[in-house]
Write a structure and sequence with these properties.
alpha/beta; 370 residues
Length: 370
């Protein structure tokens, strides 16, 4: 295979920042990137070089809800052949990798993201069957955690087809000195406010209700505490907002939606970053917070122990435990020296562990395409 650019077809949700970063790595390297997606990307976020193709545009029948399920695989197969693709890379097992596996496309690269393999593939026989089909059809599995590697082995993956690449994150620009000095003033808060930052989406598995309820106790102990809920999506936004109002927290909780360009300044401006998600696989928000030298409060979940442990960069709390979450946040907010120690350790650790994804992806693709 020559050093000319590859034609790569991605299958996934172009609204996801993870997928946007994957595409960005490849566009920067000069490859031709197509993405088949159920929804268009948000205006201004999709790299100009990415060619996006809506599922509903593949053929007339994929625009018809009752027929789409029957027609998506043959339509996707024809699209891949017409490009023609050197590599197909499917992101998330259900449904995207399942679709790609059924097309018979080769070479096929599959990336489980976390909840798909760690939760959905274990919930019922149907989900497990589809996940197994996707994993075993792949010529290569690109994974970002030991927890995902173990889950893929359970699904029948061959160990020599698994590759660790942090394709879903770009740490360039994330650093403590990038902090937004105007954040507190812009939100109408005192300059000495202690900001707790959550970047998790408004979904049931991120347990934001637990975080909000715990914050009632945090504010009682530390009146300067403030909470920023910065999420890109999720169906529970209004439900969480109602909970904030119900608990009388409206003056100390802000709802933000940061663009990719805004993230480095927002993350570095927080005093503590928190996540209470039920399952995780090296989430970008974790790695970005570490690169920004932020101390962490995290719920105990798969893969988190690969990056931080109790007393070593983070306070680790049990799942859905309001009292433990409140205590951990209060402890960190009251201890600036501890926050600084955790933050320094986290930045050093993540910068040593995470290498640029572009060269690793390209090397794998070229090996498969050859």
């Amino acid at each position: 295979m020559s050093d000319e650019g590859l034609r790569i077809v991605g299958v996934g949700n172009l609204r996801s920042l993870n997928l946007l970063r994957w595409a960005g790595h490849l566009c920067k390297a000069g490859h031709e990137v197509h993405v088949v997606t159920p929804r268009p990307g948000r205006p201004g976020e999709v790299p100009a070089a990415v060619q996006s193709h809506l599922v509903g545009s593949l053929e007339p029948w994929t625009r018809v809800p009752l027929l789409r399920r029957l027609r998506i695989v043959p339509a996707l197969r024809r699209f891949v052949e017409d490009v023609p693709a050197d590599i197909v890379h499917a992101h998330y097992l259900l449904p995207f990798a399942s679709w790609a596996a059924r097309t018979g496309a080769r070479p096929l690269v599959v990336s489980p993201w976390g909840t798909d393999a760690l939760v959905h593939a274990r919930e019922d026989d149907h989900g497990r069957r589809l996940a197994r089909e996707a994993v075993t059809a792949a010529d290569a599995l690109v994974l970002n955690s030991a927890a995902l590697e173990e889950a893929c082995l359970e699904l029948g993956a061959e160990p020599d087809r698994m590759h660790r690449v942090y394709w879903h994150v770009d740490l360039e620009g994330f650093a403590p000195e990038r902090a937004d000095p105007s954040l507190r003033t812009r939100l109408g808060w005192p300059k000495d406010a202690l900001v707790v930052l959550s970047l998790r989406n408004f979904r049931p598995d991120t347990n934001l209700d637990v975080l909000v309820r715990s914050f009632v106790h945090v504010v009682k102990e530390e009146p300067r505490a403030r909470l920023v809920l910065a999420a890109r999506s999720g169906g529970l936004r209004e439900e969480v907002r109602e909970l904030v109002d119900e608990l009388g927290l409206a003056e100390v909780v802000a709802f933000e939606r940061a663009t990719p360009e805004d993230l480095p300044a927002l993350v570095a401006a927080g005093d503590v970053c928190v996540s209470l998600a039920s399952s995780d696989s090296a989430p970008p928000s974790l790695l970005e917070a570490m690169a920004s030298a932020r101390p962490l409060v995290y719920a105990d979940a798969a893969s988190i122990g690969e990056w931080v442990t109790q007393g070593d960069g983070a306070e680790i709390v049990p799942q859905r435990n309001e009292a433990a979450t409140a205590a951990a946040l209060t402890r960190l907010l009251a201890a600036p020296e501890l926050r600084a120690r955790y933050g320094k350790r986290n930045r050093r650790f993540v910068l040593e562990a995470v290498e640029p994804a572009g060269p690793a992806l390209e090397a794998l693709y070229r090996e498969l395409a050859a």
